[in-house]
Amino acid sequence: MNKLRLILGDQLNINHSWFKENNSKITYVMMEVKEETSYVLHHAQKIIATFAAMRFFAEQLQHKGFEVIYFKINDKQNKQSFYQNINKTIKEKNIGELQYLEPDEYRLSTELKKLESIENIKVESVDTEHFLVPKLYAKDFFSEKKHWRMEEFYRNMRKKFSILMEEDKPIGGKWNFDSDNRKRWNGSPNTTEDFRPSHNHEKLFLEINNENIEHFGEGQETSFHWPISREESITLLDNFIAKDLVNFGDFQDALHDENWRLFHSFLSFSLNSKMLSPLEVIKKAEEAYYEKDLPLASVEGFIRQILGWREYIRGVYWANMPGYDQHNFFKHNAKLPDWYWTGKTDMRCLSLSISQSLTNAYAHHIQRLMIIGNFSLLAGLDPKEVHKWYLGIYIDAYEWVEMPNTLGMSQFADGGLLATKPYVSSAAYINKMGNYCSNCKYKLKEKLGEDACPFNSLYWNFFDRHQDKLSNNPRLGIVNSQLKKMDQSQKKEINKKANFYLNNLNSL
């Protein structure tokens, strides 16, 4: 019986058991389809990177002797649909059995289940062999508990995989060294060179544009710096561990207008497209701790992002789908300001963070959470639209990881299912983490006045207008107490200032 196996664009795991043997009766199919480029507006680099990595992977399989049918975006026979292309291939190749790697997104999982309706074909989904635990592991782990907490899940994972452990105790006597990882960077220590590869994808980008695929952001097609193969991803990983991991912990939250890379790994696209496995990344970092005497706070902080947060977020996603994207706890419905698409705002922190995102398809977690996400929540932007923006702009954004991070962690739209409190701040926090506030039009210490930083009045206005939902939150006791003690006339002026900003978002 001839067998067809479907590989999606974020399933580029060359070490999957599928590829342990070569069978002449098995054909692999991969496809670039417009239905996957249009469900949200994507950053140009995200489309380029995905297609380039897919093409390289297909060539790699062919070089190993596997039969691969590949539908390029501009192929005349490409129906621009998974279902139609597969149906066509089944008929042409006399296929009796269809297998597909289990998608990580509910949207695609639902779409591929339609394949079961094809007549006279046995259809089977297969594990991607990538994640450390099954997608419902977290749901089962927390089944008897009232609240989900990542820290509890993380400790379980540390024990389960024996990472940074001495018998049943964490190395260093603590599970978490996050409090050590909040330093500003002021030019020292020196940052390393950009270890990412360089490609020319001008031809590919032309194909994308000739097919009228909509996108935004800079393509950087002639000097493209994202890895598109496992080999390049491993080189990036090794360089990060050898050169940058030592300083990663100290400065993982830092902001600086002259250095957007600092000491970050840039491995998220490689991980989320499965060119790298999470366990091998974790193990290499752990080995470096033992062999190179790297700071425990750096190594633990890096490992926690993958072993803890990444696996946890996936669990949150699958436990709450479908319907997680419909949450809107605060009933926010404001439109995204136009400058979310241009970066042209006088608020320097937002201008720098958004412009960087448009230029590089990347921002680190503080830029995403405490600048862009912080403002989005304070400004009452529609969380679903914010989610779509994040999903489109970042090269590593796939729905399973991005949706809970945006709707839950950043926008508190789920009412506290993921986060214990809304992650918002005034200008003081942003200034504490770096130099983004310097040379800004707005004055970071002022709540009122013509040039008062919008974050300040919006911060207090947010808590004031949502007192019915937040007044009893145990983690907001200090904020709520300060709000109660605030002079009523001052509060009125702050709310007036905030409402002015809320009504004029495009002019900020």
Description:
- With 508 residues, the chain is an alpha/beta fold.
- It folds into 3 domains: 2-126, 3-Layer(aba) Sandwich (Rossmann fold), CATH 3.40.50; 137-198 and 227-319, Alpha Horseshoe (Serine Threonine Protein Phosphatase 5, Tetratricopeptide repeat), CATH 1.25.40.80; 328-507, DNA Cyclobutane Dipyrimidine Photolyase, subunit A, domain 3 (Orthogonal Bundle), CATH 1.10.579.
- 46% of the residues lie in helices and 7% in strands.
- The chain is built from 20 helices and 9 strands.
- It has a 5-stranded parallel sheet with strand order 4-2-1-5-6, sandwiched between helices. It has a two-stranded parallel sheet with strand order 3-9.
- α4 links the parallel β5 and β6.
- α10 (278-292) packs antiparallel against α11 (296-319) and α14 (383-393) crosses α15.
- The longest helix is centred in the middle third of the chain and has 24 residues, at 296-319.
- It is globular.
Question: What's a concise summary of this model?
Answer:
The protein has helices at residues 34-37, 44-63, 82-93, 106-113, 137-141, 150-161, 202-210, 230-251, 268-272, 278-292, 296-319, 348-360, 365-378, 383-393, 399-410, 427-433, 454-465, 467-470, 477-485, 488-502; strands spanning 2-6, 26-31, 42-43, 67-71, 95-101, 122-126, 165-166, 169-170, 215-216. The protein is α/β, with parallel strands linked by helices.
